[in-house]
Amino acid sequence: MAVTQDPAPPAITFTSTSPATGEVVGTFTVDGPEAVAAAVARARRAAAWWAGLGFDGREQRLRAFKGQLARRCDELCELVRRENGKPLEDAFVEVLVTVDHLDWAARKAAKVLKRRRVPSTLLLANHAASVEYPPVGVVGVVGPWNYPVLTPMGSIVYALAAGNAVVFKPSELTPAVGRWLVDAFAEVVPEEPVLQLVTGFGATGEALCRSGVDKLAFTGSPGTARKVLAACAEQLTPVVLELGGKDVMIVDDDADVAAAADAAVWGGLSNAGQTCIGIERVYATAPVYDRFVAEVVARARRVRAGADAGAQIGPITLPAQVETIRRHLDDALAGGARALVGGPESVRPPFVDPVVLVDVPDDALVMREETFGPVLPVTRVASADEAVERANASPYGLGASVFGRRRAAALARSVRSGAASVNSVVAFIGVPGLPFGGVGESGFGRIHGPDGLREFTRSKAITRQRFPLPFALLSFDRPERLVPVLKRSMRLRHGRR
Ligand code: NAD
User: Fold this and answer.
1) b or e along 460-473 (b: 16 or more beta carbons within 10 Å of the residue's beta carbon)?
2) Around 294, how many Cα atoms within 13 Å sit in the side-chain half-sphere?
3) DSSP E strands: which ranges in 234-371?
4) Which atom from ligand 1 is nearest to the alpha carbon of 244?
5) Contact yes or no for 208/93 (Cβ under 8 A)
6) What are the tens digits of pLDDT across the range 366-424?
7) Which residues line ligand 1 (CB under 6 A)?
8) Closest Cα partner for 420 from 431, 409, 430?
């Protein structure tokens, strides 16, 4: 009897396209829960092997991965340009910062995570105490499209350096960049699938949340984050949430106005404003406001959107975002705002040319919600303190920038955010030893730096009794006199007024 086997149903696929030209960049499978579960099962075996390599073995391989990125940088930048739309030079800066993080995480993991002795107390002086940081196991990483290399790698690299295997679901808008990164890693670590790719839309990300991974690192919008959190809650899967922002720049009375304007224009308009830590609001104090606005206008007029080599910013990568930008702009203008550069005509999909707004009411959408476009609202304030107050009225709190001299550092501290740069923009993301993450609607948990390495471990405390004491405190055989003696000693040591 001939047994015929039904052919496997054809895989469902989707294509990723260039936002500038519509050219197809690649075709990818829509991975369902079974495919995601299979990847996580493979990752579990790979994780044991990877953890077993120890810090030295992993450092060697992560350095080799770094070498791949550095040597093949042009190839990667070209792919980022095609799939995300940003200019080649911006893609290069993104890769450069990523390589720095990779280098730091590879070199520092042992120092940050190695077992460390902790002093004991008088009460337990006969115990040696130590803490160690074993990897959590398998980390799921769900990424966005706006920085398709730096953003997911901010989680991937630190999770790998801490000894975990990773299953990575890139944005459906940038799966080819995700594939490139995973393939480049597999070339230097061919033994086990330590870093794997799953592709698809939100449902694939949701399947990863429900797959039993030991931690889920999500970067994206607060709305999706709520769904991620709900799905992860089912199995109490811990999460890191790196979300959006409404970052401010504060320009104080004693600021270098030209430098502040240059930074505001770059921080607000580069990557076509599609930067989580991009400048989305500027508050300039009255004494510098007019000069600052004039400088901003002159500089912003020189920035042009396009797909040609001379354009400073590319297209809006997510087509639906164009409507959000248009809505924010129309709403601000209807509320009395004035556009000193650009205007409604700047929105010419898939491109949006720079817009500089003044006199924007506080309740305008562009002042409250993430615009994620090249729109820069500048507001006059009486003092830097008023600027801080207005900055902190936002539910977001990712990054911030302060320009000034005398009070700049103190102002940077008072802004409710996970990071701040004084006399520059976004510098904090380029220092690998610093943690990165937000507060409020901008998320929680930290990537980068020692905090970012520890985020992908579970700290484990161990005590070892070195010798028994004549009186056992932690026993039913505790001598009767012990507690009164300890009570007296506690009062002596801690109870004095
Ligand atoms: P998004 O929230 O739409 O999608 C992010 C990822 O989540 C994508 O891979 C998507 O497929 C996936 N996803 C969608 N629904 C899901 C679900 N129910 N469960 C699991 N995964 C799901 O965000 P986006 O448009 O790709 O990215 C833009 C947002 O990301 C902006 O808000 C930006 O500020 C933010 N961002 C934050 C950082 C940061 O580090 N804080 C960095 C870059 C971007």
Assistant:
1) eeeeeeeeeeeeee
2) 5
3) 239-242, 248-251, 281-285, 338-341, 347-348, 351-352, 355-358
4) 34
5) no
6) 999 999 999 999 999 999 999 999 999 999 999 999 999 999 999 999 999 999 999 99
7) 142-147, 151, 169, 171-172, 201-202, 205-206, 209, 219-221, 224, 227-228, 242-245, 276, 318, 370, 398, 438
8) 409
Q: How far is ligand 1, taken at its centre, from the CA of residue 219, in Å?
A: 5
| d(CA 5, ligand 1 centre) in Å | 41
Active site residue 73: no
What number of CA atoms fall less than 13 Å from residue 346's CA on the CB side?
31
With a CB cutoff of 8 Å and minimum separation 6, the contacts of 448 are 101, 154, 158, 429, 432, 433, 434, 435, 436
Q: What is the pLDDT of residue 5?
A: 61
- In whole angstroms, give the CA distance from residue 65 to residue 50: 14
Q: Which residues contact 67 (CB under 8 A, 6 or more apart)?
A: 188
Could you tell me the distance, in angstroms and rounded to a whole number, from the CA of residue 224 to the centre of ligand 1? 6
Q: DSSP letter at 4?
A: P
Q: 134 Cβ partners below 8 Å, 6+ apart?
A: 51, 163, 457, 458, 460
pLDDT the model gives residue 1: 41
Q: Which two tokens stand for residue 158?
A: 């630190």
Closest listed residue to residue 362, CA positions, set 398, 397, 386: 386
Q: Rounded distance, CA 174 to CA 468, Å?
A: 60
What are the pLDDT digits (tens) for 231-242?
A: 999 999 999 999
Rounded Cα–Cα distance for residues 154 and 452 (Å): 9
Q: Give nearest CA residue, ligand 1 atom 4.
A: 220
> Helices in 53-120 by DSSP H: which ranges?
54-71, 73-84, 88-113
* 448 CA to centre of ligand 1 in angstroms: 18
The single residue of 77, 209, 232, 276 carrying the catalytic annotation is: 276
Is 276 assigned a catalytic role?
Answer: yes
Q: Whose CA is nearest to atom 39 of ligand 1?
A: 242
The alpha carbon dihedral of 350, 356, 359, 363 has a sign of positive
